[in-house]
Amino acid sequence: MRLLLPLILLAGIVRPPATVRVTVRLLDVRAQKGGVIHVALHAAPGDGFPGPAPGGNQDVRPVTPVTVIVFDVAPGTYAAAVHHDANANGKVDTNLFGIPREGYAVSNDPRPRFRPPRFSEAQVVITRDTTLTLRMAY
Predict the structure, then answer these.
(1) Which residues span the domain enclosing 101?
(2) Is residue 89 part of a domain?
(3) Number of C-alpha atoms within 13 angstroms, CB side, residue 109?
(4) Neighbours of 83 (CB within 10 A)
(5) Over the stretch 110-137, which tens digit does the pLDDT of each residue have?
(6) CA 109 to CA 80: how far, in whole Å?
(7) How many other CB atoms sit within 10 Å of the CB of residue 78?
(8) CATH code for the domain of 90
(9) Residue pair 82/26 in contact by the 8 Å Cβ criterion
(10) Count of domains in the chain?
(11) CA 62/CA 54 separation, integer angstroms
């Protein structure tokens, strides 16, 4: 019983953090293209992934060799989606087949053919401060 009481007391004191820091590191950014990089951190599959996320978007200027974006969020399951809007027209420019002509990246780096990546392919469980490293595809 003596050992059990400190464990019970400790269990009441140690709580998961209210927020965690998610650092998104973008590699292979082509900063010379200019424009803006849109970064979205999605918390659910039905919130528009891989497009803008409700409440979890940041726009930054491209920086070479690594562009870094930081989010403070509650612990949970997330998927990051990035779009380099090189011509700053506010949309993802695609070719005739719907393939992006501007840079993009998603967490876990899924590269499905003939369709956008799904939330389930890009999701990451975040329980503590985490760095996601994404490689831009152009």
Answers:
(1) 17-135
(2) yes
(3) 9
(4) 24
(5) 999 888 999 999 999 999 999 999 999 9
(6) 10
(7) 26
(8) 2.60.40
(9) yes
(10) 1
(11) 22
- Burial zone of 38 (CB within 10 Å; 0-12 exposed, 13-18 middle, 19+ buried): buried
pLDDT of residue 17: 77
Q: Determine, yes or no, domain membership for 5.
A: no
Please, which residues have CB within 8 angstroms of residue 106's CB and are 6 or more apart in sequence? 50, 79, 80, 81, 82, 117, 121, 122, 134
Alpha carbon 52 to its chain centroid, in Å, reads 11
Is residue 55 pLDDT above 60, yes or no? yes
Question: Does 6 fall in a domain?
Answer: no
Q: Which two tokens stand for residue 15?
A: 């709580």
Contact 126, 16 (CB under 8 A): no
- Run of H or E residues at 57: strand 57-60
Contact 39, 60 (CB under 8 A): yes
Residue 11 belongs to some domain of the structure: no
Q: Which residues pair with 60 in a beta bridge?
A: 37
**Both tokens assigned to 29:** 């950014």
Closest by Cα among 31, 37, 91 to 64: 31
Q: What is the pTM of this model?
A: 0.85
Residue carrying structure tokens 């989606």: 81
Q: What mean pLDDT, rounded, does the chain reach?
A: 90
